[in-house]
Design goal:
alpha+beta, 3-stranded antiparallel beta sheet, 42% strand
């Protein structure tokens, strides 16, 4: 079911690093465009991330429950409903990252992780890709939040989560993609 996005790395003439941070780096790239012209583009470089749609029930059941988190996000100036997610550590596989983030943010461990898809978050200025997984066979445990993570668990039915998207109460892109992908493909597999 996994639909891997393969980046097309053409047109790069040169690259200059102007900032390196804890989460992202900023490069200014000289690019040759398809028509032969050249120009500079600012590119945010990101290690990538994994995100998980955790199913408390069998995804094939009538209206399975999923675990959302309600997390404080400074950039959004408030709390957002999200699926568990986080950055890949150096050398870490997307699947290992998904397992780690699920455990850290919710306390749950998954018996099964199924790769759903990989997508670019905002290809106009960043190379960040998020790898989406569905998790089943969950076992409860203790969350291991980082100092800047303020998270509350919010179990809900998949239908209610989709209603929250429709009502504009879920506005996080990875969460919308993950829930809608799971509803459209995982449940119909």
């Amino acid at each position: 079911m996994h639909r891997n996005v393969k980046p097309e790395r053409t047109g790069g003439v040169s690259s200059r690093r102007v900032y390196t941070g804890r989460v992202v780096s900023l490069d200014v790239d000289m690019v040759r465009f398809p028509d032969g012209s050249t120009g500079e583009l600012e590119m945010i470089r990101h290690s990538g991330a994994s995100a998980v749609v955790p199913f408390l029930d069998d995804p094939q059941s009538m209206d399975p429950r999923v675990v959302l988190i309600r997390q404080y996000r400074y950039a959004a100036q408030g709390h957002l409903f999200e699926i568990p997610a986080g950055r890949l550590d150096a050398g870490e596989s997307p699947k290992a990252c998904a397992r780690r983030e699920l455990k850290e943010e919710t306390g749950y461990s998954a018996e099964n992780l199924v790769a759903m898809t990989t997508f670019y978050t905002t290809p106009g200025f960043t190379d960040e890709r998020i790898h989406l997984f569905a998790a089943t066979g969950l076992s409860a445990g203790s969350a291991e939040l980082e100092a800047d993570e303020f998270v509350e668990l919010h179990p809900t039915t998949l239908s209610e989560a989709l209603s929250l998207i429709s009502a504009g109460r879920i506005v996080d892109g990875k969460t919308m993609v993950g829930l809608m992908f799971a509803a459209a493909f995982i449940r119909r597999a």
